[in-house]
Specification:
The structure is a single chain. This protein has about 250 residues and is of the alpha/beta class. It folds into two domains: about 80 residues, Orthogonal Bundle (Methyltransferase, Methionine Synthase (B12-binding Domains), Chain A, domain 1); about 130 residues, Cobalamin-binding domain (Rossmann fold), CATH 3.40.50.280. Helix content is about 55%, strand content about 10%. It contains ten helices and five strands. The protein has a five-stranded parallel sheet with strand order 2-1-3-4-5, with helices on both faces. α1 crosses α3. The longest helix has 23 residues. It starts with about 30 loop residues before the first helix and ends with a helix. The N terminus and C terminus are likely disordered.
């Protein structure tokens, strides 16, 4: 079982053996390990690591994609390998998510784009235990000018209600397990057929999309196995394609 590091985790250019960064150098696996162990120590230690990366010239966007996201995956690997128990895994994951909330205002101002008039619904599968990845994705969409509704439905009824609550240009579902695949297949088919927006973009992401995308083939939605910035670009292009296709059809 992994134990929190007893030494003080300093924030600065010597986080890993004197390593320094120039410009936009990617955060490496050693740096990700530093953040993971800092999260074991506590939220303040994790916060100091992020401050250190910022001092080294890393943008929050890079920190999220190259630092926080792989750190979350590493924590998951430790859990699967029984290096962390459930309680500690939950605590460490909560520290990562708290970091995203604390830096949210700064992140949204880091490279803000004008409102694009598009609305997006992001949901986890019903009863999901973790939503950090979806929250991070929502932050990138907000920064890109989207109006975002984020939901962690507790059951199938809430999932269906939220999907039918408003007009959305796109709906994204993060899937972590195979527990609800058949249910989601039927639900999303109903959503697509009954949507007031005939050109709505429906897509799937999350751990299952990354690990086992073929298991999602029965669900009537497109699988996007990309990081947050690439997902934003993909959805933007797909929505534009669907709108243009709908306009072409309506002109006949």
């Amino acid at each position: 079982m992994l134990q929190p590091l007893r030494r003080h985790v300093s924030a600065g250019p010597r986080l890993v053996g004197g390593t320094t960064f120039s410009g936009k150098s990617a955060l490496d696996a050693a740096q990700v390990q530093i953040l993971a162990h800092a999260c074991l120590q506590g939220l303040d230690a994790a916060r100091q690591v992020v401050f250190g990366w910022q001092k080294q010239g890393q943008s929050l966007a890079d920190i999220y994609v190259q630092g926080v996201a792989p750190c979350a995956r590493l924590i998951g690997e430790w859990w699967c390998a029984d290096k962390l128990d459930f309680a500690m895994t939950t605590i460490v994951s909560s520290h990562l998510q708290q970091l995203l909330h604390e830096f949210s205002a700064e992140f949204l101002q880091e490279a803000p784009q004008e409102r694009n008039g598009c609305s997006l619904l992001l949901l986890t599968e019903p009863g999901a235990q973790h939503s950090m990845g979806l929250f991070m994705l929502s932050e990138f969409f907000k920064q890109a000018g989207w109006t975002v509704t984020l939901c962690v439905p507790q059951d199938v009824a809430e999932f269906k209600h939220v999907c039918q609550s408003d007009w959305f240009d796109a709906v994204g579902v993060s899937i972590s397990t195979d527990r609800h695949l058949q249910t989601l297949s039927a639900l999303l088919r109903q959503l697509k057929d009954g949507s007031s927006n005939p050109n709505m973009c429906l897509f799937l992401g999350g751990p299952m999309a990354m690990r086992e995308p073929l298991l999602l083939s029965s669900i009537p939605a497109e699988v996007v196995a990309e990081d947050a910035p690439a997902t934003v670009q993909w959805v933007k292009q797909r929505v534009s394609q669907l709108v243009l296709s709908g306009c072409a059809i309506s002109s006949f």
